[in-house]
Amino acid sequence: MLPITKMDVQTTKKIRFVLMDIDDTITTNGKLPALAYSALWQLHEAGLVVIPITGRPAGWCDLIVRQWPVDGIVGENGALVFWEESGRVKRIYHNQAVPNSHETLQRITTKVLSEIPESRIAGDQFARMFDVAFDFAEEEPRLPLSVVQHIKNICEEMGAIAKISSIHVNTWMGQYDKLSMTNQFLQERFGYNDPKEVLFFGDSPNDEPMFTHFPVTVGVANIVNYAKLMNYLPTYVTSQEGGEGFSEGVNVFLGLR
Question: Is the backbone of residue 9 left (phi > 0), alpha (psi -120 to 50) or beta?
């Protein structure tokens, strides 16, 4: 990873789309700081297409697409995308997305909670449509990464997809991820066809599909906490963590443009 200050002018001139994870990428200690929200507005006002790409649930996505300066939001790790058009919220669900009432997901939940006593369901589960989220760092007590990996292993051994974010282990049925829905949405809504037109900000293993595909990616400084769980890291890294790191990266990017 190169310092964000190594980003060059020519790279920034090609960017049309700025995408970002939410938790611990634009938030700090669970809160959205003013400077990170301001950075979203700066990107929006610069005429860029701004789209959060998150593991957060459908319920959150509905609120975010209505109230934030964004052009859409990909949620539940690629199960869905919401956007506003002509004063209405429109929605696409991935054709492989399966409701989280699926028998395999229910059996996984039972096994994880019984086999790992300290495990727990994420507090936002009530707002989810397609996945099950196990919390390990959003609320106290934080669980060690060894336990996090154990949860992921159980999910995969029982036939589900599982990804680790900075706060949750998300598990679902169906072959999709953040990248597949992002590409579909950008192509269908905006006529996108060049990965060099995208700048992506992230911080954790569930952002890895994005890091592998797009040549211009930025990790906020706290990505180093999960580097050992990842095979692909972003192109650049900020000096600050979370929302402050996101704001730092946006300022460098817009300054170069």
Answer: alpha
CATH class of 2-95+176-256: alpha beta
Classify the phi-psi angles of 24: left when phi > 0, otherwise alpha if psi is within -120 to 50, otherwise beta: left
User: What's the burial of 159, exposed, middle or buried (CB within 10 Å: 0-12/13-18/19+)?
Assistant: exposed
Strand partners, 219: 202, 237
Instruction: Supply angle C-alpha 104, 105, 111, rounded to 5.
Output: 90
Q: For the residues of 181-227, what is the DSSP string, one character each? A: HHHHHHHHHH----GGGEEEEE-SGGGHHHHHH-SSEEE-GGGGGGG
In the CATH hierarchy, which top-level class contains the domain 103-172? alpha beta
Q: What are phi and psi of 211, to 5 degrees?
A: -65, -35
- The rounded distance, in Å, linking the Cα atoms of 177 and 216 is 19
Q: What pLDDT tens digit does each residue of the chain (257 aa) get?
A: 999 999 999 999 999 999 999 999 999 999 999 999 999 999 999 999 999 999 999 999 999 999 999 999 999 999 999 999 999 999 999 999 999 999 999 999 999 999 999 999 999 999 999 999 999 999 999 999 999 999 999 999 999 999 999 999 999 999 999 999 999 999 999 999 999 999 999 999 999 999 999 999 999 999 999 999 999 999 999 999 999 999 999 999 999 99
Ranges of CATH 3.40.50.1000 domains, the chain: 2-95+176-256
Strands across the sheet containing 80-85: 73-75, 80-85, 88-93
Measured from the Cβ of residue 104, the count of other Cβ atoms closer than 10 Å reads: 15
